[in-house]
Amino acid sequence: MKKYWNIYKVFLANSFSVEAQYRKHIVLNLFTNLAYMGLVFLTIHILFQYAEAIGNWTKGEVFLLSTIWIIVDEICILFFEPNIRSIPDKVTRGELDLYFTKPVNSLFLITAEKIQLNNLYKLVIQFGILGFILNYFQIDLDLISILLSIFLIGCSSIILYSVLLFLNTLSFWFYKIDNINGAWFTFYDFGKYPLNILPKFMKILFLTAIPIAYTAYFPTQALLGKISPSVVFFVFGMTLIFFVLSLLFWRHAVKSYTSASS
Amino acid sequence: MNKYFTCFKAQITKHLTYRGRMLIWIFVDMGQFLILPFLWLAIYAGRTDIRGFTPADIITYYILMAFISLASASHAGEYIERDIRYGDLTKALLRPINYAVKMCTEGYAYNFLVSLLALPFFLIFSVLFPEYIILPKSFLTVILFIFSLGLAYILSCLLHVIIGLSAFWLEQSGAAMQMRSLLEKVFGGELAPLTLYPLVLQTIAIYLPFQYLAFIPAQIYLQKIQLHEIFYHFLIAFGWIIFLSLLCIFLWKRGLRRYEAPGA
How far apart are CA B10 and CA B14, in angstroms? Predict the structure, then answer.
């Protein structure tokens, strides 16, 4: 375990050096991120001009849901998302050899290699906005709800890791599928809206084959104290299933890997 | 003209080679508009009209947004940016062909193919859910809609070329591209019909070119604007095309002076 922590510290140091080189880019990125959040909030504002609630969710609750979705997304980008999305490129260029020949878990090396430290600035701002929303809409929280929500955010991050790993592992067999991430993120975006308004078949789809409901919907419900213990156990169970299946799929794919470089 | 048509045909062949990839892109472009109709239906909750839009209007509006994004949204900016950054522009400069026109003609091959492929999906949808789909009421509406799509593509190309050319000056133009995309979404009416926006945003949208990318073509299709208003909008769109073309020429000439052909 200590070995992995030491490796991670090296990754952190490298990522810091990279970020330090592109300071102008950080400012532009921050600005764009704020504009993106503005876009999300504007959409909600337009919708709530014509209704008091959407599917039993008030305006403040939908703002909270969207902000939590943005925060979860940011956490995933910070730690692993771009690394997993780079797998198809690594496969087609034969760069995976480098990782498989190291005496360390290759999946750890591949998915933890780069840490997007500039996302830390964004996270600070997003937590600030979260605080503002809680205060502005007078949403009261208790400690258990907060802890439960943090636990479910952990689960949602693991589910996102698993789904992305599964999709990008397909590149071991299919070439030119980099846009499969685009297809996933098209649906993933829906997670920032109350999904209980959708027809039943879409709800089932978003809980199983395209698991976007876990990203923010359940963590927000937990934060608002609107979740039952059975749902928490269900989310935890689904997290384990997604994670184990994606690891098994990865192992299977690695066995069929043929280097493209040599 | 012939040389551009050759570029167009070559791109069609290329896209047809990667059919699976293209189908995923169609799915991505259309999928982004899937959730908003459901949100609006939850808002209508029995109401028949919101500021002149019936539930059928709003569903058709988002289906139109999906179709318009396939048929007339350019993607040239990122290719231009990449050519400048990696020095591939040098090759293009040696050829007897206008680089920007070539990029936009090649790009249109994708729009042409995907809109043809997506058309059956829309027709099936209109047969399955006739209560939610409004079909064009006259042949003139179809002609005016197609013409507005043409103008939308030219405007979209010009905006893309401007952002792509910013790579002459910027280290990374990714943020600039994202800003363009955000502005298009907000002021192009992709989030919702502009008439449902707060008044201040509607006023700003009038003075920007983005409404001609999607909102105005959709309004023409839905027959929400009169014929004389349509011609007025076409005139303004032409004005924007002239202004943005001049800006492109200016940026191109200035940019080439700075171009260092990296990698050459």
Answer: 6
Does the structure show a pLDDT above 80 at A176? no
Task: Please work out, in degrees rounded to the nearest 5, the angle formed at the alpha carbon of residue B118 by the alpha carbons of B117 and B122.
Answer: 140
In angstroms, what CA-CA distances link B160 with A188, B123, B166, B179, B250?
A: 26, 30, 10, 12, 15
- Closest Cβ opposite residue B43 in set A22, A25, A47: A47
Most B CBs within 10 Å: which of A37, A42, A61, as the mutation test of the B interface? A42
Return mean pLDDT, chain A. 90
Chain A nearest-CA distance from B27, in A, is 7
d(CA B88, CA B90): 5
Q: How does residue B73 score in pLDDT terms, banded at 50, 70 and 90?
A: very high
What pLDDT, on a 0 to 100 scale, did the predictor assign at position A262? Answer: 52
Best of A43, A48, A61 to mutate (most B CBs within 10 Å, chain B): A43
Q: pLDDT value at position B171? A: 65
ipTM: 0.86
Mean pLDDT of A153-178: 90
Q: Does B28 touch chain A (CB under 8 A)?
A: yes
d(CA A262, CA A97): 9
Alpha-carbon gap, residue B246 to B243, rounded angstroms: 5
Which residue shows structure tokens 């190309």?
B157
Q: Are B67 and B118 in contact (CB under 8 A)?
A: yes
A36-50: burial string, b at 16+ Cβ within 10 Å, e else: bbebbbbbbbbbbeb
Distance CA B176, CA B166 (A): 8
Kindly report the pTM of this predicted structure: 0.89
CA-closest candidate to residue A196, choices A3, A73, A53: A53
Contacts of residue A32 in chain B, CB cutoff 8 Å? 175, 178-179, 182
Note whether B191 contacts A: Cβ–Cβ < 8 A: yes
Quote the CA–CA distance of A55 and A76 in Å, as a whole number. 28
The span from the CA of A205 to the CA of A218, in Å, is: 16
Higher pLDDT, B31 or A82: A82
Determine whether the interchain pair A49/B35 forms a contact, defined as Cβ–Cβ distance below 8 Å: no
Q: What is the pLDDT of residues B188-244, one digit of tens each?
A: 999 999 999 999 999 999 999 999 999 999 999 999 999 999 999 999 999 999 999
- Interface A:B, Cβ pairs < 8 A: 86
Other CB atoms within 10 A of residue A186 CB: 20
